[in-house]
């Protein structure tokens, strides 16, 4: 034990764990998004994939995976399903045949009209400035954790 370490508290409660607060907030988001996703006919992961393509269309699969923090073996089935639903197209990059590019179809772009009209910012109960602060803090937390894992490897 380092001299800067403190003894672990005796009565640590589940609610004291930051990881549990983040995990349970994620579950609450899932429940809050349920009706939106049902109306769109998408899973949450499919939904964020489409949002990432609204942000930047014609991305490589690898670039999209990095943006979404998804491995290729997780992302590929999602892309295949969205392609079967008519929301996107996958094509080999003519300049580099090893790369596959993903683009939204007209139907995929139309989802934006429906999807963005159902934002849940209000449901968080946070004022706009609080919302931005929380979002930035969680993104910083995520990035710090990723960096710590990479440094430990």
From TrEMBL:
* A GO cellular component entry from the record: cytoplasm
Q: Which Pfam families match?
A: Staph_reg_Sar_Rot
Q: Which UniProt keywords apply?
A: Cytoplasm, DNA-binding, Transcription, Transcription regulation
InterPro entries noted in UniProt: HTH_MarR-typ, MarR/SlyA-like, Transc_reg_Sar_Rot_HTH, WH-like_DNA-bd_sf, WH_DNA-bd_sf
One GO molecular-function entry = DNA binding
Principal cellular location given in the protein's record = cytoplasm
UniProt name for this protein: MarR family transcriptional regulator
According to its UniProt record, where is this protein located?
A: Cytoplasm
Q: What superkingdom does the record give?
A: Bacteria
- Signal sequence: where? none
What are the residue boundaries of the HTH marR-type domain, all occurrences included? 15-143
Give an example GO biological process. response to stress
């Amino acid at each position: 034990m380092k001299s800067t370490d403190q003894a672990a508290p005796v009565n640590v409660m589940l609610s004291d764990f930051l990881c549990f607060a983040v995990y349970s907030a994620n579950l609450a988001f899932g429940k809050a998004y349920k009706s939106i996703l049902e109306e769109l006919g998408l899973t949450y992961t499919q939904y964020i994939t489409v949002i990432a393509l609204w942000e930047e269309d014609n991305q490589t699969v690898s670039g999209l995976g990095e943006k979404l923090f998804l491995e290729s073996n997780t992302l590929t089935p999602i892309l295949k399903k969205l392609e079967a639903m008519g929301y996107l197209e996958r094509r080999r990059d003519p300049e580099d045949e090893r790369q596959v590019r993903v683009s939204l179809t007209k139907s995929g772009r139309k989802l934006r009209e429906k999807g963005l009209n159902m934002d849940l910012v209000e449901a968080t109960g946070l004022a706009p400035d609080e919302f931005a602060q929380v979002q930035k803090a969680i993104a910083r937390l995520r990035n710090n954790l990723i960096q710590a894992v990479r440094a430990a490897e």
